[in-house]
Amino acid sequence: MTVTALSASVPAQLLITGVTLPDGSTADVYVDGPVFGDPSSAPADVARLDGSGLIALPGLVDPHVHLREPGREDAETIRTGTAAAARGGFTAVQAMANTSPVTDTAELACAMAATAAEHAACVVIPCGAITQRLAGEHLAELEPIHRAAGTMCFSDDGKCVADSQLMREAFEEVRAFDGVLAQHAQDPRLAGPDACCHEGELSARLGLPGWTTAAESAIVARDVELAALTGARYHVCHVSAQPTLDVIRAAKARGVRITAEATPHHLLLTTDLLADLDTTFKVNPPLRPAEHVEALRAAVADGTVDMIGTDHAPHAPQDKAKAFVAASPGMVGLEQSLAVVIDTLVRPGRLDWAGVADRMAHSPAALLGLTDQGRPVAPGEPANLCLVDPEARHAVDPTDTESRSRNNPYAGRDLPDPVRLTVCLGHVTYRR
Ligand SMILES: NC(=O)N[C@@H](CC(=O)O)C(=O)O
Ligand SMILES: [Zn+2]
Ligand SMILES: [Zn+2]
């Protein structure tokens, strides 16, 4: 099993025979350098791979990962985080801005892109901050970041932009280049920095500060009005709660330009995992009861939730080995994202492979403005591929990872082990 940085390889030539495409048809797929070629034009001695029983998805795109570089390279780096991405089938990721320093200037966005060009195993898009230092007081260099780094998406993720007027001004600035604001929806008065458990019977019993679903849905409802007012695009990070889904449905019905993502952990895990106060399961927004998990699955299936975003959030051991209220929130997710989608949505018959390609490649690529990602697996298209064995399974081992961190909420769980091969713009970035 190998993971390779893009800069350390040349585009490959590879013929994958008899593979199943997302629409259910069978075809040969020919990786001819950076594009897919016509299989009948492949040379007789080309390297071959038997694709029977395998699914050829487009390379997956993750709109929400934390790579921790610069500032917390002990927890993750661009190299290790994108290696985990390649192993998870991803060919592009958006790196959130809550690094140290925060990605709030054009210079810092370009520095991240330069590091990625040297070390990354997939395409890395720097997300720009909405406000300077994520402090929620003054706007960051929105338009300069867009101009310098091609960034379309801006977010204070980790923090909520609570100031309505500042949010309005940010919408107005990104509207000019058709950019999008991605909100970490957490009203800081309803769910403050200590909030760490879904507000309900369990938070009361454990004595943990509650995180009401209204803290999420109220912010999204406000932002919908600002998106409608300004005509700008709006994206909801890591939706966790049923009332928020109602707000998103109503906004879409009104024609507001809104998209939303769900994480794999909110699609599988429930709040009762907090009963033993294991900080691995501490995350923002918190794990919710089963009725919210079910509502989220239905929303991904019907398209109310447009895409999957892992919110891959690696943390060093000492930041998790603390009292529950003091521990850092977040969990890794890149290497198990497709596995969780298969078990929660594909196997139960709620999403077909074309749906997976849409929620995990086409939709996030459109959000980020990536024209060469999330495209069909077809001759003439960019050679981005995630080759999937839908039957393989294993017990998840948190130490068997490309990530530098081990805060894996699926430890010991029986899950699919689907990714056989990842190809990014013709480069074989992962092969098992
Ligand atoms: N999700 C989390 O609990 N933590 C994220 C920040 C975030 O996505 O809000 C992190 O950066 O660790
Ligand atoms: Zn967040
Ligand atoms: Zn995040």
TrEMBL record:
Region (Disordered): 390-414
Keyword Repressor on entry: no
Comp. bias regions, Basic and acidic residues: 390-405
GO molecular function: allantoinase activity; dihydroorotase activity; zinc ion binding
Top-level class of the enzyme under EC nomenclature: hydrolase
The entry's keywords: Hydrolase, Metal-binding, Pyrimidine biosynthesis, Zinc
Cofactor(s) recorded in Swiss-Prot or TrEMBL: Zn(2+)
Gene Ontology cellular component list: cytoplasm
Residues that bind substrate: 66-68, 98, 284, 315, 329-330
Residues at the active site: 311
Recorded family membership: Belongs to the metallo-dependent hydrolases superfamily. DHOase family. Class I DHOase subfamily.
Name assigned to this protein: Dihydroorotase
Source organism of this protein record: Raineyella fluvialis
